[in-house]
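Limitations

Structures in this collection are predictions, not experimental determinations, and the ligand pose is part of the prediction. Treat each record accordingly. The example that follows, with adenosine-5'-diphosphate as the small molecule, is included so readers can see exactly what is and is not provided: the inputs are given verbatim, and the output is the predicted complex.
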Amino acid sequence: MKEYILSLDQGTTSSRAIIFNRKSEIHSMAQIEFKQIYPEPGWVEHDPYEILTTQIDAAKSAMEKGKIGPDSLAAIGITNQRETVVLWEKKTGKPVYNAIVWQCRRTATLCKELKQQGYEEEIKARTGLIIDPYFSGTKVLWLLRQIPGLLKKAEKGEICFGTIDTWLLYNLTHHHYTDPSNASRTLFLNIHTGSWDHEILDMLHIPPGILPEVRPSSGDFGKTAKEIFGKEIPVTGVAGDQQAALFGQGCFEPGSVKNTYGTGCFALVTTGKVPVMSKHNLLTTIAWDLGQGLEYAVEGSVFIAGALVQWLRDSLKIIDDAGETAKMAQSVNDTGGVYIVPAFVGLGAPYWDTDVRGTIFGLTRGSSRDHIVRAALESIAFQARDLILSMEQDTGTSIASFRVDGGASKNDFLMQFQADILGIPIERPSVFETTALGAAYLAGLSVGIWQNTDEISADWHCDRKYVPGMEDKVRIEKCRTWEKAVNAARSFI
Ligand code: ADP
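Predicted complex:
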């Protein structure tokens, strides 16, 4: 019986594969890390073949561990690190260069040029994005300019472009497809029509022949070639990681929000069939297309969240393990006046300030390790608060609660402080792997494992709810000091 869905979760540092049963439970999983390549300061690359082989090996390993043969798999869903770019030769399938990763800042100058040429407003209106090296577009432009002869080949239709979903699909099913959630992060897609935007392609000198076909996120993406898993398996769900997590959290209704606390923070609010254009420096993005039209989200990201805890461990060496920070923070009544603005790589939404750097305020002789750890955790929550407030302003509605996931959402102190500082309850689900689950749902909906989103919603269970308990006066004072700290950090350049 085809009772299971295989979810391929291709992340920035590892490829994971998770097999879910029809009760949305994890049956088995496997994870393989791969190499990060840093050819120059600020540059980040991956080997596209390593991405592919680790992903296939993780899938085989999850099948083996769970004793699941290809006959038991109803479908495959794919979710992936977004914005990362691969270009390859159509004839041979061979990449022309390493994958340029979303974190890579090599196109900063190119972005400045585009802004100076006055493209910003037009690009924002059409794509929902801002001009930033983060998105795929300028990475493709860089490759076409830097690799001798590549532009000519691309113009002759000999080159394929793909984000990581497309690279995996091309190798698994031999089709050149993507879905709107991934396409909406490239800078090439018109989010209003869901089609590639030819005026932008002209503006950026991108040959349209390199682009994949955009297909609904839940639907037919072809079948895996027989030799890969021993049988052909249909791929019927594809979404970028943050949109997949939004889906996996059951945030289907307009106004529902999830926030992921990983290396950075990614908060998304579903806005339904309407693209809400942000006035507060958030991004407008496509959430998914279930085959019944595009649905949208507004997204805000914070660059440094859990990464600050890693810094406490690896650089300051004041903790041994992220897991001990909750207890340390709880061991003191407050931060003793210490505030940290963790702008190690500038600040993301809603500030988008690339020049500001990390700053610690309020140190005294009484400041202890515990105070600093507490201030670090609080800074993650303050940054997330800035995102949520911007979302409320953009959507014109107040957010009554939200759902959380990601490594740092295991931290009870952080989650309680988050609820306190926003004055709204937050909920953590029992299935933590919301990204992989989202891709499984998209795939499973298409083949009838789940009939509709109501059925999926019924499978969402709360592990723990954090109810706000902070006095208004205290909350207002803390938020005011945080805002002062951000402003002071931004003026110290
Ligand atoms: P990503 O998918 O971005 O790699 P994960 O969701 O796996 O991130 O979360 C890892 C991050 O969460 C790391 O930056 C780590 O420092 C942080 N983290 C993990 N556990 C805790 C914890 N208990 N408290 C605070 N931060 C944590």
